[in-house]
Design a protein that fits this description.
Blueprint: H1 9-21, H2 32-64, H3 75-105, H4 111-145, H5 148-184
Helix pairs in contact: 2-3, 2-4, 3-4, 4-5
């Protein structure tokens, strides 16, 4: 059995610097049809993952209205609940839409357009999902902590984390890759 250890921050920096200096490996030639098919398969896999999460959250939210304590909620919490359910329904619609797009446009040779539209709908659905999670947390923490201010501070921190994980990190990596590709020049 081999032992594994975590790299230190300095070791990670060295690995990243070496990777940045290494030229990008040429990709095997991929035709337009193969690229569109690959991208469609990626969208489908991403959709499967996101749909599961949003559907579980939506089902949980729908069941809350039928609990005994729901009727004890104040006006703010009831309004927040309605907003949260609407966000969850909207997120569900956006994340399931790529399947409907494909089914409705199947056979019309519009796969590239479907892939582009599906990607945009996925991004929209993910934003709505993040907002749904934030509102769900706000509702839950408002009830548990007994105040919207404390709950709002915690939710703000969580939403910042979502933004960093889901948007800032990919954007940073994309910029770095594009910069590296520009520096490498044409091949």
């Amino acid at each position: 059995m081999t032992a594994t250890r975590r790299l230190t921050e300095a070791e990670w920096r060295i690995v990243e610097e070496e990777a940045a200096r290494r030229p990008l490996a040429p990709r095997p030639t991929e035709g337009a049809r193969e690229r569109v098919n690959r991208r469609w398969q990626e969208v489908l896999q991403e959709t499967r993952v996101a749909q599961t999460g949003v559907q579980i959250l939506f089902g949980f939210l729908l069941s809350l209205a039928f609990t005994v304590r729901f009727h004890e909620l104040g006006g703010f919490d009831r309004g927040l609940y309605v907003v949260t359910v609407v966000l969850a329904a909207s997120s569900t619609a956006a994340l399931i839409a790529p399947v409907s797009l494909h089914r409705c446009l199947c056979g019309l040779r519009l796969k590239e357009e479907v892939v582009l539209a599906a990607g945009r709908l996925m991004v929209c659905g993910m934003v709505l999902l993040a907002l749904t999670v934030g509102c769900t947390l706000l509702l839950l923490l408002d009830v548990v902590l007994g105040g919207a201010l404390a709950a709002g501070i915690v939710v703000g921190a969580v939403m910042l984390w979502f933004a960093l994980c889901w948007y800032a990190t990919p954007y940073r990596l994309r910029r770095r890759a594009l910069s590296r590709a520009r520096d490498a020049g044409p091949r």
